[in-house]
Amino acid sequence: MPGTIGGALRMNAGAYGGEMRDVVRSAVALDRRGGRHALAPADLGFTYRHCAVPEDWIFVEATLRAAPGDAAAIGARIEEIDRARGESQPRSRTGGSTFTNPPGHKAWELIDRAGCRGLRIGGAQVSEKHCNFLINTGEATARRHRGAGRGGAPPRAGRQRRGAAVGDPADRRAASRRRPDRRGSAVVSKRVALLKGGWSPEREVSLASGAACADALREAGYDVVEIDVTRDLRALVDALRPLAGGGPDVVFNALHGRWGEDGCIQGVLEILAIPYTHSGVLASSLAMDKEMSRKVYASIGLRCAEGMVIERRALLAGDPMPRPYVVKPVDQGSSIGVHIVGAGDNLAAVESAEARFGDRVLVERFVPGRELTVAVLGDRSIAVTELRPKVKFYDYEAKYTDGVTEHIVPAPVPRPVYDAAMDWALAAHRALGCEGLTRSDFRWDDSRPGTEGLHILETNTQPGMTPLSLAPEQAGWAGMSFPELMSWMVERARCPS
């Protein structure tokens, strides 16, 4: 410490089917002022070759768990791994495997495909044996080679290297990457206005979420005022900015569905300059619009089911694609208005049922297999949950009726699928420009090899907060209580620009 083990913690090092996150029980890090921080696994925020601890903190302690083993067997395994590495990796001076694998690809394959195997610049060379390794053949230095391959352009500032996501400038993205603390850092005097209800089809779910969140916020020490939001905008503004003063310090948004989750209420809060939880205007709008979010997913290489947006009445003319396929509104959540059209189903009835949600619908190829979901908290994925509904599919009833769906966390899926779902959820969160808490939903066709059957469905910027809800369940599994989760969200509320 802080060399080998510290570096392994920093990058969630792994090989041959195991990673640091599989064995870490706790860690201690020092910040730049010498402050000591005890970190549980949930605080470390491990994802693929990354952890969420601030980059300027130094790890000084770690507790790892391991099972007793036979010394001879362990020695034989080490020799086996060493031989395998000798056959597949260079033995000369290298910095190790250099680039992380982007979703759906192997970094070395992309480097090889680009014709860079064996490429040499001065004393630095791309390995012939494994082209994700950079070899120092003699006199290579970081100063001499920094910027190679970028036309000699000067190195970018640290906060610009992970360029801004859609809807967020680089400085806001950098400022938002802060460690979730579990110390219950609520300030007792801070007043929180909790928005709930609304008038979307998800009103009842929002009321349930709001009641649970209000209780947890009070338990965490906040002064909470609950507001049942209606179409009376003047009443809402008066409640948030009373003429006599004394308005809230932060708004906790527990609204679901249109007007509360699609950027509308976020725009009001931006105008009023009140900090609020969850994502901003553009990110909320993009995520809620399934046509636009699919385009964002495709732009970063995430697989969606084949689909198209069509006029709803076009369904009356016949099937837009071979059955089975899924019809859903383009701008609703909670599986509202979702229909799986199979053999013998009445298409006219589906069209009629969709009428109250607008004139356009999304039609997607039905992906058989299993339902997975991943919550993202700040800049880290938490876990993968498998959902096993006892009804036909994971619809509104299955989401909000106790006992109808079994939640299994962590999901019992192959490690490559688990890691891909974790990585894709975080990639979607970043690409859409989301903040705070989100949850991305997936279908996995387990009849396909590897991760070929994984498809992203949508990203929820206002995931449910009822006792049955998945994001709080995952946070709890990772060691963060419901009041701690609420406190984390309030203390990291988005500040309007």
What's the topology here?
Blueprint: H1 4-11, E1 14-15, E2 18-19, E3 24-30, E4 36-39, H2 41-44, E5 58-64, H3 71-88, E6 94-97, H4 107-113, E7 120-121, E8 124-126, E9 133-136, H5 142-145, H6 170-176, E10 191-197, H7 203-219, E11 223-229, H8 233-240, E12 250-253, H9 264-272, H10 281-288, H11 290-299, E13 307-311, E14 325-329, E15 339-341, H12 347-354, E16 360-365, E17 370-377, E18 380-389, H13 396-400, E19 405-408, H14 415-432, E20 437-444, E21 454-460, H15 470-477, H16 482-491
Parallel strand pairs: 10-11, 10-12
Antiparallel strand pairs: 1-2, 3-4, 3-5, 6-9, 7-8, 8-9, 13-16, 14-15, 14-16, 17-18, 17-20, 18-19, 20-21
Task: Explain what the structure shows.
This protein has 497 residues and is α+β, with helices and mostly antiparallel strands. The chain has 16 helices and 21 strands. The protein has a five-stranded antiparallel beta sheet with strand order 19-18-17-20-21. The protein has a four-stranded antiparallel beta sheet with strand order 6-9-8-7, with no helix packed on it. Helix 7 crosses helix 16. The protein is globular, with a radius of gyration of 25 Å.
Q: Which parts are unreliable, with pLDDT below 50 for 5 consecutive residues or more?
A: 149-188
Distance between the termini: 41 Å
Structural category is alpha+beta
**Morphology:** globular
Please tally the helical runs, counting DSSP H or I stretches of 4 or more residues.
16
Q: What's the total number of strands?
A: 21
Strand adjacency order, main sheet: 19-18-17-20-21
The biggest sheet, with number of strands, parallel, antiparallel or mixed sense and barrel status, is: 5 strands, antiparallel
Mean pLDDT: 83
- Rg, alpha carbons: 25 Å
Residue share in β-strands: 15-25%
Helix content: 25-40%
